[in-house]
Design goal:
It contains one helix and 20 strands. By secondary structure, it is mostly beta strands. The strands form four sheets. Strands 3-2-5-7-8-1-4 form a seven-stranded mixed sheet, with no helix packed on it. Strands 11-15-9-18-19-20 form a six-stranded mixed sheet, with no helix packed on it.
């Protein structure tokens, strides 16, 4: 009888080990789902940069246009799956290889020079705060099957630029300047729709000694809320709070359009009329309006 009990116990042990072995094998199979490489390479820009100090072209090296590249991969529910941020000088700047499960993904690439560390968790609201710079973008849905995918990325500019150019001198009393706007554009970007998010912001800075007592040019970048031309209201103030100096002007119905510079030129401090110039990077066409 003892022998029979022993044989029964031994059979039970063997059965338990067999079941455990099967369970372990199934778990390992789940953990070893085939991964596929998605290889991205920033190939070219739709347009040359606004800053013509760099003689750029459609073949411009990405490092001459921006300081940072953000690659973000989302599932089809817009949940962030993977992200990589590169800085100019990185050995692989402009190209990245990601390992993904087979499926469809929204791929977003942003090229910019902002000092802001972008929060990429929500592709429909990527905030740049008060440091929007010349920014380029590509967003597309890519299907990853059982073979590696290689994709050249072509970026397009997604900002507009407003420039205030004074032809008279900044008063010696001024030591601070701010520029803000209402409507038509924002400081956040919707990478799903490819347009700005209605989040008004602006820029502000202390004036340097080299900027006081002479004409000045101030630039503001923002993301248009639409691909169609619209308008905004821009407020510009030169101040010195310590001595109660404030010279401000508001410009209404300022044209806003992606990839277009709107430049207001004139005597800011004497309330004289301004000349308005709109320049498209595509055609370098000008449209001047006096008011």
């Amino acid at each position: 009888m003892i022998k029979n009990y022993f044989l029964g116990f031994l059979a039970l042990v063997c059965m338990t080990l067999t079941m455990a072995s099967c369970q372990s094998t199934e778990h390992e199979t789940d953990d070893n789902v085939q991964r596929v490489s998605l290889n991205l390479h920033v190939a070219q820009f739709e347009q040359v940069p606004f800053d013509q100090a760099v003689a750029a072209s459609r073949a411009t090296d990405v490092s001459q246009v921006c300081s940072h590249l953000c690659f973000a991969i989302y599932d089809m529910r817009n949940k962030l799956v993977e992200s990589v941020t590169q800085n100019v000088g990185d050995p692989t700047f402009g190209q990245v290889s990601l390992s993904l499960n087979a499926g469809s993904y929204r791929v977003v690439v942003l090229a910019h020079s902002s000092s802001i560390k972008l929060n990429l968790s929500n592709p429909e609201n990527i905030g740049f705060g008060d440091d929007v710079t010349d920014t380029f973008y590509d967003g597309e849905v890519i299907k990853v099957d059982n073979e590696n995918v290689n994709r050249d990325i072509q970026l397009r500019r997604v900002v507009t630029k407003f420039e205030l150019v004074t032809t008279d001198n900044v008063p010696t009393k001024a030591n601070y300047v701010s520029m803000s706007y209402k409507g038509g554009m924002g400081c956040a970007f919707d990478a799903v729709k490819g347009v700005g998010v209605n989040a008004a912001k602006g820029i502000s800075k202390n004036l340097t000694a080299d900027e006081i007592g002479k004409p000045i040019t101030i630039a503001l970048y923002a993301f248009p809320l639409s691909e169609e031309e619209t308008t905004t209201e821009i407020m510009v103030s030169f101040k010195n709070i310590k001595i109660d100096f404030d010279k401000s002007r508001t410009f209404s119905n300022v044209p806003v359009q992606r990839n277009v510079i709107t430049r207001y030129t004139g005597n800011f401090f004497s309330n004289a009329a301004f000349a308005v110039s709109m320049t498209s990077i595509d055609e370098w066409g000008n449209r001047d309006v006096n008011f």
